Input
Amino acid sequence: MFTKISRIVCMIGALAAGASMLALPAFAEETGSAVTFNKDVLPILQKNCQSCHRPGQIGPFSMLSYKDTRPWAKAIKAAVTSRTMPPWFADARYGHFLNDRSLKQADIDKIAAWVDSGAAEGDAKDAPSPTQWPAAGWQVQPDVVVELPPFQVPARGVLDWMTLVIPAPFKEDTWITSMEILPSEPSTVHHACWDFYPHKPEYLYNTYEWSEIPRDDEGIAERTPRPAPAPGAPAAAAGAGEGGNAFVPANATVVTREVGSTVEKRRKGRPVNPNGGIYCYLPGLTLEDYRPMNAAYFLPAGSDIAINLHYTTNGLAVTDKTRIGFTVAKTPPAKQFFPQTQMPNQLLSIAQERPTTELAIPPYEANYLGPPTVSTFNKDVELVTLRPHAHVRGKSAKYTLTYPDGHEEVVLNVPRYDFNWQLSYATSLKIPKGSKMTTQFVYDNSPGNKYNPDPSKWVYQGQQSWEEMGTPFLGFVVDRTQ
Amino acid sequence: MMKRLWLALAIVASLAAESRAEKKAVSFIGPDGFTLKGAFYTTGKAGPGVLLLHQCNADHQVYDNLGTLLSTAGYNVLAFDFRGLGQSKGGDFTNFAAQSRKILELMPGDVDAALKFMTSQGIVNPNALGIVGGDCGANQAVHAAERNPTVRTLVLMSGGTDAAGEAFIKNSPKIPILGIASEEDREGAATVKKAVDASMNAYSRLEMFKNAGHAASIFEKEPDLEADIVIWFRTNLAIGGYGLPPTIK
Output
């Protein structure tokens, strides 16, 4: 007798096996030859899997060779037939995405047929030439690399967001076509996000700066006013009425520490350095690539990079060494990329019907609707990236565009949001002036959410993984001559 | 010709990378000063720890391939020999069969010593631990999880647990359990099924084979099982911690 779950798994497995059995003769009939690794499977792996499944990458094993891949054959079949891998979370019913990495059904059938027929290696002469992956762990070979100073992540404690300002490594105006960030200890990195700013003399180079957020014993940020939610009170009542910066209370202490030093200096006031926070390392996301859009980000000469670092302790002290790689255009591209926050004001305004500071997820609530974010477009624009961001209680995210004539279109639906795979969805969507984009996050604070650290707690907006966010992160391109 | 050369180079590069998964002989001291011996598998990177507890008619070598696969996948792994078996024969303990009662009494302390040794290696995240237990090692795994709250998941092969262990499993809905057995191994199959049935975790599941043998010997008949166990850990014992609230130990 199997458990209920086992029975369900077996039923799914049986269905998958049935589909595979159907697929095997169909595929064999189609090709007229045995399915082999070298001839049929390796080309699929090169195109879809090896970017992560090679030494030094996030994949748990390498798929560069038959020897590496064979022990995992059954697991690979299970992952692709269930569409767990490659990780891709966009609802196929909506939108069209340039970076859609979900496998074609024909490729899934090939892999299933290969496994079901004994996972043969085949003739080496059938193998495609090995993909030449960039060295040193990069997805894209960078033209310019910036190495951040080593950061000592302690074993315990709560680390607030820190910013570090360094000069950008470009002496002239530069068109950046891709940006990639590689922490050496990703298990401790919640995010590492940067942005570019015109240099100001007051910026503190090579100094970590952060606002010390008062927290209670449970790590919850103390923000005022935040009325204690009464049992059974409507969720929106809790946390209502907050003002000012969403994350940093007005009375926060600003702390600075020079790189390489352990001496911390404290003062009251506002941080000197800018916040950073647009281009990111996030779990599952390391690369911003504008090349498929024939676009680039324009960086004026003499700019600074402000990096916002959010390290999380996990019981083990480590030293992280993060690198950022850039590719640059030799000639200006046709289009210029703008992140949402840097769109010229005349093009885009963003307003929220309810502030996200109202976010207050009740204990054990499995379907909490977060405050929707509404972006209004004041001019025709081309939307090219959507990157939903929530933390471990994030359950789903939906982007709905309302056109000026009132009709609605879902442009991205992520029905199963996964903090560990925070993907950026690349598209090309012309949005007419007067349209509005509404982004709706749903949160799961129930025990059924396997990543939920404690379903008995109210959850509010905050910086830490156990607090929550709901950020749409949109990116746009405009013609360079515009 | 060129294609073959590239393929050869790729395989060499791959093997070089795989070789970073290091296996080293280790020894540590049990609570009474007895020396226990085994192997530590690591790629040298910080990550969760997995303890492998073998069946009582074998030694830690049965987990050699599993240890390598797990370490390649990002885990730091310790497999050691119980007293009177493998390299932990010596002194007062030279015959497990004859001394099993005494050795089983001492086993919980030895398992705790193994966990302590593993987490003292400097690269094992003490907040993210998992245990694989085969046969008699299964009951030890369950009770080790009871004593050590940072054990997040268990894999039980052809062995279950006693009433106290079942009660612990029932009261620990956060611990997903993978049960593995072969049908004709009636006792092993029944006990592991009972343990999995006791679990209230939605992700716990049973993998039941036919004519596959007992505990780690199933690996010979089911060559995909070791990879399945690694995938289980990747699904249930995240490599990345991404921070836990300070009150979650």
About this structure: The CA atoms of residues 396 and 417 of chain A lie 5 Å apart.
